[in-house]
Design a protein that fits this description.
By secondary structure, this protein is mainly alpha-helical. Helix content is about 30%, strand content about 5%.
């Protein structure tokens, strides 16, 4: 039997593919459009929240759901993973907190606070939800967003009463303890969510998208930048900039590395080049100083 032939364009047929055409070929598919650098990226423009019966935005909360979902950031190395970077979420959500809280207050889902007037009560609840600006994890903004995304925003008061603020996220729905248990039971009663699986799905669908770790420089120059990522997290705040080598034997050294493989191997592990979304870190001043060298 004659050996198979290979023909490239209109060239003469070849009995075998020349080595120089296969050397360093990577079987991994090329990555789609990648995240831009900070200098190329502006936060999206947003319009005031409006009721729109045609799109299903019958409340301000539903309009916020649409705004959030329309502006999620997709991971270049995945067709289904997406999340809200810290800066993006703050931009999309914070400007309308008072209106969203006002909608709950008008519908009676937030009570008057003490002897305060309605306007003073509304200001009080807005401050509670917004939290302190100088504290990274404060208030109930992500709790509120999570409840809105699963159509349970009217149960925000139970979380505030229980003191279950953003610092409790992400929830481990398998080992839920008080006070989280009570707040979740109020929002997701057993008659509606009759199995643990349903609770896992409805919470996990969004909570990880809201809690991707922000990577910041240490406050002191002598400290090492350490990032703790929950073992159950479905997201890492970065992606590999080049396809991974298919086997350990493909790991290359500095001398023979190519643009298709930025992996370095050693006795104790591997180092990969990754890219962090510019809205998810504060390294930009350092990166700019390096570019100017």
């Amino acid at each position: 039997m004659d050996p198979p032939l290979v023909q490239i364009n209109n060239q003469p047929p070849l009995i075998r593919i020349p080595t120089n055409l296969t050397y360093n070929m990577d079987s991994s598919p090329p990555l789609p459009e990648q995240w831009p650098d900070d200098s190329e990226l502006d936060l999206p423009s947003i319009r005031p929240l409006l009721h729109d019966e045609k799109t299903g935005a019958t409340t301000l909360a539903r309009a916020m759901v649409r705004r959030l979902n329309d502006n999620k950031v997709k991971f270049p190395d995945s067709s289904h993973k997406s999340f809200w970077p810290v800066k993006l979420f703050d931009h999309l959500f914070d400007c309308d907190i008072s209106r969203l809280v006002g909608e709950l207050f008008e519908k009676g889902h937030l009570p008057s606070h003490g002897n305060m007037s309605p306007s003073s009560s509304l200001q009080h609840w807005t401050r509670v939800v917004r939290g302190a600006h100088d504290t990274p994890i404060s208030g109930y903004r992500r709790i509120f967003a999570l409840l809105i995304l699963v159509d349970k925003g009217n149960h925000l008061a139970e979380f505030i009463k229980a003191g279950v603020d953003d610092s409790y996220l992400p929830f481990n729905t398998r080992t839920v303890k008080e006070p989280v248990r009570g707040a979740l039971d109020a929002a997701f009663p057993l008659k509606e969510w009759d199995s643990q699986v349903k609770l896992d799905l409805v919470i996990s669908k969004y909570q990880w998208d809201l809690t991707v770790r922000y990577i910041g420089l240490p406050t002191a120059s002598s400290e090492v930048c350490t990032v703790e990522v929950d073992a159950n997290s479905i997201h890492r705040p970065w992606y590999r900039t080049y396809p991974a080598a298919s086997t350990a034997s493909n790991i290359q050294t500095d001398e023979d590395t190519t643009a298709h493989d930025r992996t370095r191997g050693g006795t104790y592990g591997f180092v990969h080049q990754v890219k962090i979304h510019p809205w998810q870190h504060n390294f930009n001043p350092i990166l700019e100083s390096v570019r100017r060298l």
